[in-house]
Model the fold of this input.
Amino acid sequence: MPVTLSRHALYDLVWSKPRTELAKEFGVSNVAINKHCLRANIPAPPPGYWAKRQVGRKVQQVPLPLRLPGQNCWVVIGQENIGHWRRPTQSDEPLVPPTFSEDLDAQVAAAAARIGKVVRTRDLEAPDPALSKLLAADEKRRGPDRVWSYEKPHFDEPVFQRQLRLFNSLARALRPLYGVQAVVSEDEWIRGLGTVHRLALCLNFGGAGMRLMFREPTDSKRLRDWSAVKTTTLEVGHKGSHGGTRQWTDSDAGKLEDQLTEITRYLLWRAEESFRAAAYARHEFLVQQREADRLAELARLRAEEEQRQAAAAMKLARIRDEIVGLANRQAQANEIRALVTALSRHPEVAGPRADDFRQWAERAMQVADSLDPLKASLAEIIG
Done:
């Protein structure tokens, strides 16, 4: 069963006992514990730490560093790691507003210091793994048998090569902290222009994600020669996202290659801002959902009570109808008997129709007895 721990709780556990023991307790592998620590930026004891501690030698515990911008506050052991604010909640779990002990500027500064200056990539001889799949697909398109333009490599033009180098620089800078990112192609077919390819860098910060995209080539029908593009614009976010959009472009102040460190720092800040905004939004959603569930439960109970009262009313009406029916049957039986008695004094009864009257009177009394509830048992009468 998955276990949810805060970074601080997992840090304390990792430094309290060997990871092999923790792995057995959680029912996972030692490698899984190590991966969770790496994802959560939790330092683990170095090799030989527990042996030195066992023999009484002095050992030093590495302090827990600040959470990386955009990184999850919680770790879920036993399943694929998910953001704490997306995990299911129990109906009786108190909904506590999210709080963040870390100072946002300090988080960004610490992460930026670990990254350092973002060095521009001058070639793609040894690309970052983020570009591997896209470059491999482009390489397959090479060859003399490729006749049509859509069959040839998509990103050989200088504008694309430059964009790939810029993405390579950003991905290489972020990979030590957040792992491998992914560069993808956003393809769009435009009538009169053909298929337009735009490069995008998908960034995953653990608890937040975003997409960087180049806005060139444009989709203008007049632009058919991508080699004519001399400048490029990099954009993050969209109008509906938290923080809106932010763009960087070539200018007199400097090209994009000179703004890579500034761009990276902004991405770190935006990742943490987005993560916190998602946490607050998640809490508000859960509060509203809890209230909606409460109102739905009240409506269900009210409907059940109305159904119960309606069933009770129907039962009372049925009992009333049965009692009234019994009274009517008894009255009809008595009226039949009274009729038989009255007819027995008819002057013609003693005449030639005496046998006919006797037979009719017997049948009439049988009908009266069948109607009379007093002729039945008490169990049959009151049900």
